[in-house]
Amino acid sequence: MTDVARAAGVSQSTVSRVFSLPDTVRADTRDRVLEAARRLEFTPNPAASALAQGRTGTLGLLVPNVVNPYYAEIIKVVQHRARAKGHTLVLADTGDEPEDGFALARAVGRQTDGLLLAGPRMTDAMVGELARSGPVALIGAEAPGADSVYAEPATGMRQVIRHLAALGHSRIVYVDGTLTARDPACRQPVHDACAEFGVDLVEQLGPFDLTFDNGVAAADLVPTSGATAVIAHNEMVAHGVACGLARQGRSVPGDFSLVSVDDTFMARTIYPALTVLHVPLDLMGARGVDLLLHRIEDPDGAIRHSPLPTSLVVRESTGRPGSVSGDV
Amino acid sequence: MTDVARAAGVSQSTVSRVFSLPDTVRADTRDRVLEAARRLEFTPNPAASALAQGRTGTLGLLVPNVVNPYYAEIIKVVQHRARAKGHTLVLADTGDEPEDGFALARAVGRQTDGLLLAGPRMTDAMVGELARSGPVALIGAEAPGADSVYAEPATGMRQVIRHLAALGHSRIVYVDGTLTARDPACRQPVHDACAEFGVDLVEQLGPFDLTFDNGVAAADLVPTSGATAVIAHNEMVAHGVACGLARQGRSVPGDFSLVSVDDTFMARTIYPALTVLHVPLDLMGARGVDLLLHRIEDPDGAIRHSPLPTSLVVRESTGRPGSVSGDV
DNA sequence: GACCACCCTGCATACGCATGCAGGCATGCG
DNA sequence: CGCATGCCTGCATGCGTATGCAGGGTGGTC
């Protein structure tokens, strides 16, 4: 930078200003500096800038599993939004262990301006602890101590149940896991809606995660449940259920209707395309970034929670109940 | 750090050494410093460290599309490997535009110790340019100017063809796109193997990318081709082909056999599970990181190319050819 | 008992940029 | 024409660590 200054016949501080506060430098001076910089192939050193400013221009994103399309789509949106706002993204895959996630979060938080936690497997206490030591925003989860954006499930789930009820389904299996406990409860709304529309609910909950294999396992129990429709809490399980049913020789939506939640690309890479409760992942990601940047600007502002509306997208996996034998 | 030094009764430089070169400090001194650091909740400032060392402890990873499971799996492995080696991962999603990717690469390269390019859509010249301005390693691609790790396709593709030929298929459709041109050519080996085993080859190549939708489109052309088996160059297209065929009322592997390449989790989240040419993505990712770290250590070392063996994994999507009408 | 070698620690400075402050200049107003 | 008001720019210093160098101390050796 000193070299550029010399080449342009100005001081180092002017060069610095050209790059960080262009408006404070007269146009012709600026051009002269930029020209010199171009000639010398100079680019500001981010590390030095970070040290001097106390800001890295970097955001951290923690996800439990990069490969899960739900998180993959969030990563994609977050990355683009962050970059659009002039920030770089540091990514970390935490796995399912709360302790690991917490430790990683501390480490990543240290070298970024703020932390985005997508579907964290942590306790409220851990999240609070992190939020106290730096800007934090939650995506697809909620906790008292930090900003958050997540899907508001009640209305959407009611739509799902109504859709199924209208098709003539009177008994439904609902597959959910407990590892998503931080996600605002979907279950109560499901209960309520079932009561409202006179639908019997069979819950298939477990301490399991919402994986493909658990979906296959769940599918094995469906035929004996007497239900004619299945709601899976994300596309991984939904695919598992679909494969499980196919393997049994059952057809969707002929024998069973299937509804998923999230609406990642996987909802359409299967035949029949899945009817889903669409969750606006793009908005969630973008909103998460905005919340975090806002918190970075104003560390002491009031905490904001941002529930986003979901919507029912009817595709091919739901239809009128067929003649299910309900084999023992 | 100065505070910690005072609290521990040592100098700032000793504290620095405790964190960066622990072995050069006597054990009891070290303990005293660590204790003081713990008490004051001190953690070294990465930005300052980066400035002083000229190293950020950060690697950049560029992928064309985060959501594609192929890249998602690479991201996951790379992230873990990098972290295991004491580095943090900066992620960037480039999209398909070479220019964008190049610009992003320059930007990310500036703030990291090295760059990992997974399936880059850039020209050799661009890659060379990047490699000249900093450590670079390619994953799943090859270019003269940079270290690289990629799948060696010839042997594997031959196995695939042999497998299909052995099942009795004598005419095969091969779906590939040109956007993966940087991937070491698979086509010649396919041609050769087909010749070797007396199989007719119908190529369905295009300037298109290997997306789900293009797979569906390809499926429409399959029945009229007279072929009884399809090879799709990745799981996205394979899913598209599978869905397209299902939509036509054709069954896999009853009417058509289907083989995919890569073996991401998607190969098994479909029924029937896909027979695939397995590409060791985990090894590729880890190797990529190792190559890059090596290059960072030794910027002038000889360039290394690392082809990895692939292997045929037979699942459910291939079988003996059925009675295909070949409807006009 | 003297000397040498080595280990550990402190001192001083560099890393590259940002920014508060003050001074120089031009413009506008009275 | 003199002075006030801004606009630009340069000066000096700070950001938090790392590290070459030198000095003090220790143990070992002859």
Largest interface: A-B, 45 and 44 residues
Largest sheet descriptor of chain A:
6 strands, parallel
- Return the string of H and E elements of chain A: HHHHEHEHEHEEHEHEHEHEEHEE
Number of strands of chain A: 12
Low-confidence stretches of chain A: none
Shape of chain A: elongated
| Percentage of residues in DSSP E strands of chain A | 15-25%
Query: What's the arrangement of strands in the largest beta sheet of chain A?
Result: 2-1-3-4-5-11
The portion of residues assigned to helices of chain A is: 40-55%
Assembly of the depicted chains: homodimer
What is the CATH architecture assignment of the largest domain in chain A? 3-Layer(aba) Sandwich
What is the class of the largest domain in chain A in the CATH system?
Answer: Alpha Beta
CATH homologous superfamily caption of the largest domain in chain A: Response regulator
- The number of helical segments of chain A is 12
User: What's the Cα radius of gyration of chain A?
Assistant: 25 Å
